[in-house]
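Example 3.2
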Amino acid sequence: MRPAGTGQMKFMQERVAGVEKHFGHICSALGAYTRKEAKLRDKGDEVSRALQDYGEEESLNKSLRAALCETADTLAAVQDYRDVKVERLEARVVGEVAMYGGVCRTARDELKRGFDTRQREIAHRRSLEKVKTRHPQNRQQIIIAETKLQKATAEAQRACHNLEDMTDQFEQKKISDLKKILKEFVQNEIAFHAKALELYTRAYNQVSSIEEDEDLEAFRNARDVFDAEFRNALKGNAVGRVEAVGAGEGSSLSPVIVTSRRNRLPRKKGELKKSMEKLQVEDYEEIHQSTSSEDD
């Protein structure tokens, strides 16, 4: 087996450099994508929390209150699944691609050692030719030079064989790993969007359940009661005037809403993670596994 030539060494180096470059770009892009997903998850939690806060304070419009609370729980469930998606992206996609920084460095070092071995063989070959040219009668020097060349050639051949094995394994690993990583990325997206579509459909139906006419009627009834009390106060009814002023203290809304505000407890962040039907993240795992088995 002839040692690898300069052209072959250069070809191998370019292959490793190309993988290092493009895997670096892919890792950077996937990392940015994952960070965006994490930010979207956090913003989604803020939307859910805002809807929940309003729903807990709304006491006149019953259907609106129910829709707000139910939709808030459903949207929080979407973010639970998005959180699983982010964790999978970090561990199974970005993390796997990032490992190729070390893989490429190892391959580059192996190529450098092989190239150095090849250069030593070339140097010994030139030294032998020089001895033969300058001292053709000095058999001892020629034998020494030939021995060094034979040893260098044997080392170069071993290095060449090792490099061929290494580059074959490198290419095979690159192809296999990239296939696995991209499949994981796509399956992760499929699993999340399948659950998200289901939950967003539920949220749409929850919002559609708002009874506008009934809620508006409830508001008008409350307003009429408040107006009647206020008119009685204006007629000189001292008791009615005191009650009207007391009911409206600190707020222009109805007495019922004032009570709900006063008694409302701060909402714990963990409560946003509970959907109406206690949706489990294991559902996401089942979808992910089903897509994997279909591909296999």
